[in-house]
Amino acid sequence: MEEVTNFRGEVSPNPLHSPVDDQVTALIAHVGERVRKARQVKGIPRRVLSEMSGVSPRYLAQLEAGVCNISIGLLLRVAIALDHPIEQLLGEEDPWTSDSLRVADLYRIANADVRRKALEILNPEPENAKADRICLIGLRGAGKSTLGARMGAELGVPFVELNREIEEQSGMNISEIMELYGADGYRRLENQALNRIISTYDNIVLAVAGGVVGNPETYNTLLEKFHSIWIKATPQDHMERVQGQGDLRPTAGNPEAMEHLKSLLTSRSPLYARADVVLETTGKPVEVSTRELSALVRSNGFLA
What we know:
- This protein is of the alpha/beta class.
- It has 2 domains: 3-109, lambda repressor-like DNA-binding domains (434 Repressor (Amino-terminal Domain), Orthogonal Bundle); 112-299, P-loop containing nucleotide triphosphate hydrolases (Rossmann fold, 3-Layer(aba) Sandwich).
- It contains 14 helices and 7 strands.
């Protein structure tokens, strides 16, 4: 325990010191060692890392020595500059000797096909886990609702929008839910609604909100229990479709709306790419996309 010296020169335990302080000190030393080793493994001098991360050489030296309080923001900059997951700087497993972290790194950089095969090996799906359920994912304005309703009618399969299910069960619209319960509350309702649909339907076409990929628990359930299709389009097509439906909210008072949309699509694309298949709809009439979607479902055996 940390000690203090009083005005008489007597040494005694610091009454303000707690076991949590020891844990904090240990964590700071642990992170510093991880940063130092990551930098050395990659052969990056501290001066160069400072230039790459925008973090001062003095702070880096203190960080590696385990003698400074860690700013999460600055630590993230260092992790990005090292191309090293920040969670591996904090976790207990040694990233240079841990097989599980090595597998996680390989999975992170793998393409969608390799990821799918790895999951099939590591977590084999129970027979008929996806049944005849189909889910359309993608950014707002992709055409999920339009295509889903058309395909459902053509194939004789019920079509459901997850947000409508949430509203029906809660008795509120989505904006009211967000206002009252916030994003966390909405995500809980979203997960509950999805599980209700899974227990109710073995045969369905479901359209989900574009942000479902931000809820790992719900998105993983969706990928496990549905044949998933990413309805893909360019940012320009997304914007034009939303505005074509009379919804001017994306651009109202926001001159940088298109840049925001591009950034959102870029950040979400790796998550959307986890879908089983992709349907590119850019520049295509809805009739053409509907035919291609139905053909995609049949050719992949998504419906019995």
